Amino acid sequence: MSAEIRKIAVFLEETRSEMGQAVSPPVRKAAAxxxxxxxxxxxxxEDLAPLVEIGAELGGLLGRKCxxxxxIAPGAAESYGKAALVGENGELEHAAAILHPALGKPLxxxxxKGAALVPSSKASGAPGTVLDIPxxxxxxxxxxxxxxxxxxxxxxxxxxxxxxxxVAVTDGGRPLPRVGGLKASEIEGKDxxx
Length: 194
Hints:
By secondary structure, the protein is of the alpha+beta class. The chain has one domain (5-186): CATH 3.30.1330.110. The protein is built from 3 helices and 7 strands; from the N terminus they run E-E-H-E-H-H-E-E-E-E. Strands 1, 2, 3, 4, 5, 6 and 7 form a 7-stranded mixed β-sheet that branches. A hairpin with a 2-residue loop joins strand 1 (5-18) and strand 2. Helix 1 (49-70) crosses helix 2 and helix 1 runs parallel beside helix 3. The mean pLDDT is 96.
């Protein structure tokens, strides 16, 4: 099954200063959101495999759009995340089917590597609901400086029979991180954790 996409939106955020302190280089986050028709809206369906297929399709598409918006080489991406917001005629499991297990592989290909789990969130809501996309370092989950998030909102989505699917990618961690933990420069890259 191919996703029936009503719209795609791309957001780019660049933080240049925080609390009067320069952030150099600026930290940039990009999110790409696809608003798709929910093929199972309004009815219970046992087999959600078609949504898993849609997730695989969207992982690569949205990941590439984020990398393109950041204007970086795929390997320069540092953190990533994914989220889905189901309209009122859908169920939370529809979001889970899109986000797991197939969306991650093409997203990792879009950002080169990605040994760490992709942080995710699932929610349901009406048009204009804010969707939180959690972020974590793509290669080592214990890098605290990259525990972050990005929020997106579309005034006309998700409609009752739709799902908003979002991917976020960054070119750095939080601005001015100073809460300790493993640093990105210390990543061993063996297990997706450290």
